[in-house]
Amino acid sequence: MDHPPPRILRTVTGELAAEAVRGPVLPHEHLVLDLDRQGDGAAVLDAEHHAASVTGELSSLRLRFGLSLIVELTCRGMGRDVRALARISRETGVPVVAATGWYYEPFHTPEVDTTDVDQLAAVLVREIEDGIGATGIRPGVLGEIGSHGDLPTPAEAKVLRAAGRAALATGLPLATHAQLGRGGLAQLDLLMAEGLPAERICIGHQDLLDDPGVHRGLAERGAYVAFDTVGKESYQSDATRLRLLSALVEAGHGDRALLSCDISRHGYLRGEGGQGYGHLFEDFLPAFRAAGADEDLIDLLTRRNPLRFLTGADVEEN
Q1: Distances (CA, A) of 62 to 15, 35, 65, 104
Q2: Residue 3: its pLDDT value, please?
Q3: Which residues are registered as beta bridge partners of 102?
């Protein structure tokens, strides 16, 4: 029997066939970042000071749960360090996909103010085609492209449009940051107006928005709906997340949901007293199973959906 050609993922340590990813994927995480605007160092994952905690967690999750891929959505202006990502990937044995783009407006880098949409898109395409800086490491996703509020600001609309054009030009998928879950429909409208198909778009942080109608609306148009802050109880309870996810699945859109933890502060690391990258596997998914989810649905949500988002193609069931 003829088999289709492998779908290739672009990781920080080289190309990887999607078919080789047999275990779960975390599609929205941070391993190294710096979002510190208060001067207290809380919103930081420093490659030097926190690397042991990060690598220890990921190594354990690979052994215990078969963690097989991480999509690392730290982009321009967020403290991105792809050399550190490559080092972490090699040390843990977990492949990592790096990102490019711009976060929401307070974290924009200076060129956003002085450059038009086409020029910004060209910046992203160059990184995608030639690599980030002198590293030669090429991003495998655009994200997390940010906005806050029900409508993007003009600067945020500019970077969303630029990222949409770069995604269309390169074939990469695009993941957004919708602050507290708001503005996802406006993000999708803007990106689709640039010609990017909805199935190449993931709208972020929808588990922070208690509105099943919005989730259904995004999924019905073909976009992925990210429940990607699992375990961040100070923002939303996991009980609410479970209810929202169940509602989306029951509406027939289980193939549009993505699950992750969005570890974005060193205090979230398990070694520093937080819930850790493994909270999804250790706590949330057992609760989902107890609510009636079977293993095929778990595999769909944690492996097949993120791989389809990344490659644009289905992968076989385990």
Answers
A1: 19, 27, 6, 32
A2: 47
A3: 76
Q: How many CB atoms lie within 10 A of CB 243?
A: 14
- What gap in Å lies between CA 32 and CA 82, rounded to an integer? 9
**CB-based burial of residue 234 (10 Å sphere; 0-12 exposed, 13-18 middle, 19+ buried)?**
exposed
Rounded-to-integer distance, Cα 270 and Cα 253, Å: 32
Torsion of CA 147, 32, 14, 311, to 10 degrees: -30
* pLDDT (tens digit per residue) in 80-129: 999 999 999 999 999 999 999 999 999 999 999 999 999 999 999 999 99
What CA–CA distance (Å, rounded) separates 113 from 227? 31
Give this prediction's pTM: 0.97
Q: Which amino acid is at 81?
A: D
C-beta of residue 155 within 8 angstroms of C-beta of residue 112: yes
Residue 78 amino acid letter? M
**SS3 assignment, position 305:** helix
User: What is d(CA 264, CA 268) in angstroms, rounded to the nearest whole number?
Assistant: 7
What lies within 8 Å, CB to CB, of 102 at 6+ separation is 75, 76, 77, 108, 109, 112, 120, 145, 146, 159, 162, 163
Q: Where are the alpha helices (DSSP H) in 230-272?
A: 238-250
DSSP 8-class letter at 213: H
CATH of 8-311, one of 3.90.226.10, 3.90.180.10, 3.20.20.140, 3.40.50.720: 3.20.20.140
The torsion angles phi and psi of 21, rounded to 5 degrees, stand at: -90, 100
Q: Read off the amino acid at residue 176.
A: T
Strands 33-34 and 25-29: unpaired
pLDDT tens digits along 147-168: 999 999 999 999 999 999 999 9
Helices (H), 77-229: 82-92, 111-114, 117-130, 154-170, 184-193, 212-220
Find, among 58, 32, 35, 60, the residue nearest to 46 by Cα.
32
Measured between alpha carbons, how far is 170 from 218 in angstroms, rounded to an integer? 23
